[in-house]
From TrEMBL:
UniProt keyword annotation of Signal present: yes
Keywords: Signal
Signal sequence, start to end: 1-19
Protein name per UniProt: Outer membrane protein beta-barrel domain-containing protein
Amino acid sequence: MRLAAVIALVVAALQPAAAGWLNQTNHNFEFRAGYERGFFGVLEHTIQFGRGGTQFDYVKEGNQNILFPFERLSAELHLRQRHGIVFLIQPLDVRTVASLQNPLVVDTDTFPAGTPMNLRYGFDFYRLSYQYDFWPEPERELAAGLSLQLRDASIAFASQDGRKLRVYQDVGPVPILRLRTRLPLSRVMWAGAEVDGFYAQGRVVTGSTNVESTFRGAILDASLRYGLTFRDALDGFVNVRYLGGGASGQQEKPENPGDGYTDNWLGTVSLTLGFYIR
């Protein structure tokens, strides 16, 4: 159903009357809708729960060594060309099946070697950004701003016989710095780049108050894209993106059975096709 809706939007934007499919030319604001879809691969991914727990390599031992589907959706509101508000929805839900090569210690539980496992790493997030475009020309962009990202994490280790299950879930805000640029290459071709990222240590700024001052977290969402303008209402593009980050440190009051220590780092690269409708 979602793919059908996307196709319907593209078809509508290509109709002759769609020069301003979402907008009227006499307004001081502009709406844009974006969608991209493709695949991603995991470059590296390790996780550890509990100081005495196993540092588990999802790529080598958890079968995250294949390609996974990737998509993201965005909606933008641009005011008087210079001010922009961007809302992003980014699903990220990786599920694999593996037989443990070695014993896996997750906080207070131990999964013996050879155990058939269902593994889930869910890290959907939602991001609201404000940016200011320092380039006055409408066909160019050099924008900087701030984002507030809401993570919706769900991580699970489950033996296939149903005897052992460990689930970690967390929702929390993360502040992020933002930069985006776009340059025309010709009348119909353009290139762009986008970076959202931060590195922080301590309470609150890392998205949690229940952590020690040495707790650290980071995220980097950086992309390069090449696009074509098909008409005033529609751009298409191909996009290469690095998406990664993680956190490491100690909770002051453990929310799950165990000592509250976490070390979790992920790095991925994606290739997608996408479009913007205006």
